[in-house]
Amino acid sequence: MKTKILLLSVAAILIIGIVAAAVWWMLRPQVITFSDDAKLTLLAVDYGKKHKPPDVKASSGTRVRRGNSFTTTNDTLVVWVRQEYDSKQYHYFQYYAYDKAGAACVGANANYGGNRQGNEVVGIRLDGFPRRQGKFFLRVQEQGNGGQEIADRPLVVRNPARGPFSSWSPESLPATKDDDDVSVTLTKLAAGAAMPYTRNNDDPDDAMNKGVQATFNVERNGKPVTNWQPVSVETSDATGNHVNGYVSGNQWNGNDDVATYQYGLWPDEPAWKLRFEFSQQSDFADSELWSVQNIPLESGRQQDFYNYNNRRGTTNSVFAETDLNGFHLKIFTPKQFTDAGQGSYLQGGLHIQVTPTLPNGMHLTITKLTDDQTNDIASMNQGWGGGGATGTTFNYGLRDVGGATNLNLIIALHKSRFVEFTAKPEQAPPTPATAAQ
Fold first, then answer.
1. Confidence class of residue 26 from pLDDT cuts 50, 70 and 90?
2. Which domains are assigned to the chain?
3. Buried b / exposed e across 158-193, counting CB within 10 Å, b at 16+?
4. What's the first-to-final CA gap in the chain, in angstroms?
5. Do 177 and 183 contact (CB within 8 A), yes or no?
6. Mean pLDDT for the chain overall
7. CA 113, 114, 115: angle at the middle one, nearest 5?
8. Are 379 and 272 in contact, with CB atoms under 8 Å apart?
9. Residue 376 carries which DSSP code?
10. In degrees rounded to 5, what are phi and psi of residue 2?
11. pLDDT of 237 over the 50 cut
12. Torsion angle of the four alpha carbons 23, 129, 127, 67, in this order, in degrees rounded to the nearest 10
C-alpha cells in the first residue's frame, strides 16, 4: 500500500512538473535574434483606441527607452516589441503581417517616440492583418551596416479582433467610374503580382516581393488619354482592414495602363474596396501653369540649402512669387553646391514654397526645367517640410548643373481625380523562374 501511495505521489509530482513546464513554455516571451546579435522580444499585444507601452525591467547598467503612449481614432491592433542592438551601428527593423499560409503580407509602422538608444520598446501599429484567423505571423527584416537580413522565424501574434465579419459583394469587371471630366474603367485586378523590385532576394515568391496589378482605361471628356495615371490607392475590406498603397510603376500598352503597387490585402476576401487617385502627368491647362525664366543659379554650400528656413539666414532669398489657383507660390534662388564631391549624385538644390498647405488631391509638378543653354536639368524630389497655415516647402535636388548660370522653370499646380471600385482580385500567374531577381 505504501509503495502504491509512493508511486502515485511520484506520478503526481511528474505530472505537475510536466504541466508547469508546458505552461512556462507557452508563456515564455518570443525572441528572435539576428546574425549581428540584434534581438527582438515580443512583449505585449493590445487592441483598442488607447495604447500604452508595457513596463520593462532594465538589465543592470542598461537603459530602456519606452515608446510614447498614443491614441487612434478607430480600434487598432498594436504589437509592443523590445528592440536591442548595438547603438553604435545603424539598425532599422521593418515589420510585415502575414497570414498563416503566407499568401499575402502588409507592412506595418513602428511608433518609436524618441531617439533610438539601442534598447527600446516600440509599438507596431497594424492597420492590416488577417482578422479572420485566430493567429497570424509578424515577420521582421533588419537593415543594418552589414546589409539586410530577414529573421529565420516570425513572431506569432494571437488575434484579439477575430470575427465574425460580414462580407462584401464585388462588382463585375470591367467597371467604369467618373470624377468630374475623367472616366476610369477598371478591367482587371490581380493579387500576387511581381513587383519591379525585391525585398527578399533569397525567395522571389515571398509575399513581400508581391503586389497588386490593376489594369485601366482612362478617358477625359469622352476621349482616351494616356497622360492620367494612378499614383496612390487606399484598400479596405469588410473585416476592418485599411491600408495605403503607392504605385511603383505604370506600363502602357496602347490605351491600357497596368499599374503595380503595394500593399493590397488578403485575396481570399470576397471583395476589396479600392479608392484610386489619378494624377495628370503632362499637357496641363494654361491656368494650371507658372513659367519663370532666367532664375540665377547661385553658388552655395549644401547646409545653406538645407537651412533655407532659418530666419536668421540670409543665403536663401525668394526670387519669384505669384498666386495660382488660390495658392501663393514662392521660388527660392536655387543653389549650385560648392562642397559637393566629384561624382556626387546631387550638384544643387531648389525650394518651392506653397501657402497654405496643399490639400489632399492637389499636386505640385515641375513640368520642365532647363539651363540657359536649353539643356534639360534633372530634378529629384527630396521630400517636403512644414505644413499648416505656414505652407509647405517642396525640396528638389538638381543634377547636371555644372557650368549653368541660369535656370528656366515651368510649374504645374493641378488637381487629382478619385474613383472607387469594389472588386475581387484574381490570382496573378506565378513569376517565371527566369524573371526572378
1. very low
2. 28-158 (2.60.40), 175-283+418-435 (2.60.40), 298-404 (no CATH)
3. ebeeeeeeeebebeeeebebebeebbbbbebbbbbb
4. 72
5. yes
6. 87
7. 145
8. no
9. B
10. -65, -40
11. yes
12. 30
Per-residue pLDDT tens digits for 146-196: 888 999 999 999 999 998 999 999 999 999 999 999 999 999 999 999 999
Quick check: 278 and 250 in contact, CB under 8 A?
no
Q: Across the chain, which distance is largest between two alpha carbons, in Å?
A: 108
CA–CA distance, 401 with 409 (Å, rounded to integer): 14
Alpha-carbon distance of 68 to 273, in angstroms, equals 33
Tell me, what's the pLDDT at 192?
A: 95
Residue pair 136/157 in contact by the 8 Å Cβ criterion: yes
CA-based nearest residue to 99, from 19, 154, 27: 154
Residue 184 C-alpha cell reads as 476610369
240-289 pLDDT, tens per residue?
999 999 999 899 999 999 999 999 999 999 999 999 999 999 999 999 99
Q: Hey, what's the torsion of the CAs at 355, 361, 367, 369, to 10 degrees?
A: 40
What is the total residue count of the chain? 437
244 burial (CB, 10 Å; 0-12 / 13-18 / 19+) is middle
Query: Radius of gyration over alpha carbons of the chain, in Å?
Result: 27
Q: Grid coordinates standing for 20?
A: 508547469
Sign of the CA dihedral 216, 220, 225, 226?
negative
Span 290-331, pLDDT tens digits:
999 999 999 888 877 776 655 444 557 899 999 999 999 999
Which three cell numbers, joined as nine digits, stand for 241? 482592414
pTM summary value:
0.84
- Are 123 and 53 in contact by the 8 Å Cβ rule? The answer is yes
Cell of 82: 523590445
